[in-house]
Design goal:
This protein has one domain. It is 68% helix and 0% strand. It is built from 12 helices and no strands. Helix 1 runs antiparallel to helix 12 and helix 3 runs antiparallel to helix 12.
Length: 260
């Protein structure tokens, strides 16, 4: 005979409802700020967004729509002289020099200053084609390990490219300062970084796969391990770049929303 018995059924645990995360408003008078807020809400961690919203509460919905072109110019300047130059660190040999040249130029405030930036950004116009040719000549998708490397690098570089906020800022610049956007060769900057990020990730993940494959052990087990770990190795080189640019994008948001 048991000495202890449960006399009543345990009550169902009440589901604890979490409060909805704070988001940046997307219904202000400024189309540029609404676009940026929507993109940042999707790309940045909730903790970062709530902190940014707390810093700019009084201006979030009352922001003026009379400075859209100026916001587009500042967005373009950030894209080409902050986002692009931060990514330049992955360009072999010439990246630091190119970044230094761009950062030394006056901020983009008109078509003339945009052209000055475009003269340097345009040097990267052949990068996507050159990278594609190199990868096609050196990697074979019919080979298992090379296919794993290519897939991991493609996914990791694409995610980092988007999470670094550049394409979102480019939308604002193109929408509100299209002439200067073209003069600054911003489309070249975007295409070059997308391509370079892929090749850079591939340069990191392929040696990892080769080293892992050459370890002693069962081939099937090593292959499963490579498939599991390759995505992490492919993402690793972008951690600092993405973090730096996400933080910088919050400063840009605060700057743009304060324009009156």
């Amino acid at each position: 005979m048991p000495f202890f018995r449960r006399k009543t059924k345990s009550p169902e645990a009440a589901e604890l409802s979490k409060p909805a995360p704070i988001k940046l408003p997307v219904d202000s008078n400024s189309a540029a700020m609404n676009t940026l807020a929507k993109e940042l809400n999707e790309l940045l961690p909730d903790s970062t967004i709530s902190g940014l919203a707390a810093r700019t509460p009084s201006r979030a919905t009352s922001v003026s729509d009379g400075y859209e072109h100026e916001r587009g110019l500042k967005a373009l300047d950030w894209l080409t002289r902050t986002w692009f130059t931060t990514w330049c660190r992955i360009i072999p040999e010439s990246g630091d020099t190119l970044a230094s040249k761009l950062r030394s130029l006056p901020p983009i405030r008109d078509r003339g200053t945009a052209l000055a930036v475009g003269n340097f950004v345009g040097l990267m116009s052949d990068t996507p084609e050159e990278n594609t040719k190199f990868i096609e000549a050196n990697y074979d998708r019919d080979k298992l390990y090379e296919r794993i490397a290519l897939a991991a690098a493609e996914k990791a570089s694409s995610e980092a490219y988007l999470k670094s906020v550049g394409p979102a800022i480019a939308d604002i610049a193109a929408s509100h300062a299209i002439d200067e956007f073209r003069a600054a060769r911003a489309d070249v900057a975007l295409a070059a970084i997308s391509s370079l990020a892929f090749s850079h990730s591939l340069d990191e993940v392929w040696p990892f796969i080769v080293n892992h494959a050459n370890l002693p052990g069962d081939t099937d087990a090593k292959t499963k391990s490579i498939q599991s770990l390759a995505p992490h190795a492919a993402r690793q080189p972008f951690t600092q770049i993405v973090s730096t640019l996400q933080t910088s994008s919050t400063e840009l948001y605060a700057d743009l929303i304060g324009m009156e």
